[in-house]
Write a sequence for this structure.
């Protein structure tokens, strides 16, 4: 990597190959914790997923369906919230009465 200023950096194409140090280290982590590099999830309540302590926002990802955030405003994308049958009825009656 030309822009890298690390000393003895192992983040190279050679070390990311099948037998490289990066690949071996990643496999060791996955052996201990299978979901270590999986989808990030959050449960933000007041920050609207706009602060760096939101796991999704800080990693540059959209919030997903597994997130439990409230009032999500993540610029990369919000989680989809399925409408339950009771919510649909309440929504319909609100539209009719409004």
């Amino acid at each position: 990597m030309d822009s890298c200023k690390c000393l003895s950096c192992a983040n190279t194409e050679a070390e990311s190959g099948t037998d490289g140090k990066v690949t071996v280290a990643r496999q060791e982590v996955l052996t201990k914790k299978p979901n270590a590099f999986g989808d990030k999830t959050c449960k933000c309540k007041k920050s609207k997923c706009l602060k760096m302590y939101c796991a999704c926002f800080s990693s540059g990802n959209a919030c997903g369906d597994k997130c439990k955030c409230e009032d999500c405003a993540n610029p990369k994308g919000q989680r989809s919230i399925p409408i339950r049958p009771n919510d649909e009825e309440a929504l319909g009656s609100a539209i009719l009465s409004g």
About this structure: The chain has a mean pLDDT of 77. The helical segments are 21-32, 55-58, 85-97. DSSP finds three helices and no strands in the chain.
